[in-house]
Here is the input.
Amino acid sequence: MTSKTITTSAYEWVDERLGLSELAAFARHKTVPVHSQSFWYYWGGISLFLFLVQCFTGVLLLVYYRPGAEAYESVRQITFVMHFGWLIRSAHSWSANLMLFAIFVHMFSVFFMKAYRKPREFGWLSGMALLGLATVFGFSGYLLPMDELSYFATKVGLEIPVAIPFIGPVIADMLRGGPEVSEFTVQRFFALHVVVLPALFLPLLGFHLWLVQRYGNAVPPREESKPLSERKNIPFMPSFLRKDLAMWLISLNILALLASVFPWTLGKQADALSPAPLGIHPEWYFMSPFEMLKLLGNWLPGEFGEIAGLLLFSLGIALWVLIPFYDSTRESGQRGRTAHYFGLVAVILLLATTAIGYWTIR
Amino acid sequence: MSEHIVLDEPKPTTDDSTTRRAFLAAAGAAGLCYLAALGYPVYRYLASPSEMASNATAITEVTLKDAQKLAPGSALMFKFGTAPAMLIHHQDGTWVALSAVCTHLGCTVQYEPQANRIHCACHGGVYDPRTGANVSGPPPKPLKLFKVAVNETGVDVSRT
Here is the structure.
């Protein structure tokens, strides 16, 4: 038997059992629309790539990381003792930030292309849930080195749920594992970060990606109004895939550059008795909500302001998440325009409060 | 008939096929470079503990502080580099230091003064407590002996 017939018969054997040719046929027929806004189609894929980087570097960190009382010491070892440990930790931190950035770009491009409209509501909802989980990934992962910055960031962050009436303090104690941020907090944040969140994130991601295959890429309204004959498409295999992979390669290069040229630092070991370091501030992706709550607190002082801020903030997020049900169909006219302005206001508000937040760091 | 089919096939010009081959070669080389650039740090990262261990096994001498006070007829376990070793003070006042790793499958052996033997509990290997010779059971080789020097502050154990 020649090698060709062996490969062919091996393929046939597997195909008969797994139906590979159906998958191949699906891939051959999949197309991606081409228009002036096609650039935004890459951002979901970039987010996915960076998530894969997170899984890979995360497992590597797991090899030496020890949660609990030894957390800081183990991160110190990873950073300064293990060969290239600094690089792997730096790649994990940078990739986390880049992934959140890519997800935000992806979300806003979906919003302004109105890709949440029927039949893609579940795509939007699962995407929002994935973003929510990604921020919890970020928040829980930030504490794990247990240095000064992560300690105070977690301390401050867990004060926010305390403002929720009645159950707030209980929730905060549950998350902290006691009244103070301690080794118990690190231990449960670790469990959250490496077991609970991945267990929630992965199936949801699978669902999200399956929906993309089922409904394909949405086109923006202006493109949608053109007759079908004037719209252009390219085959996914290999044309779009090739471009997608090129984007992954660019992302990898940017990540490698950032991680090696600007290595993530490790501060002093967290110490409850030492004062908070000057200029401490939340990570950029939490800056906007943090600043909004702060501004509202200035405007409406006291507990009332805190509760009002949380309510207003929750309302804003709820409106954002539920947008597919408000602006649901192709012909939503006035509603479509309102949704568009809502999106613009959200972007401006986010950028402005983030800028104010960084501006007012003392 | 078969000739007809061959004629119908579009023949790639040599130029086309060389550029394509050159492109594939370049892409393959670039891919290998990426793989090496990613693989090398990951390999070194994961290999860090074994590198540290090999630095530790390079040690040729250990000083056991206050070990000269060890009662006759008893043994002291210690680490020589990364591996366990034992110092035995025999009833007749002689000192013996040897590797405590069974040469059969690597279990840690123990000194049994009443039976005057070194015994491995895993598979019943027995060694001579003075020479380290494998006396009975599965061990294929004797335990390695170290050089011992006793002074008033401690015991120096070194590779022979």
Q: What stands out?
A: Residues 1-7 of chain B have pLDDT under 50 and may be disordered. Residues 14-58 of chain B form one domain. The radius of gyration of chain B is 31 Å.
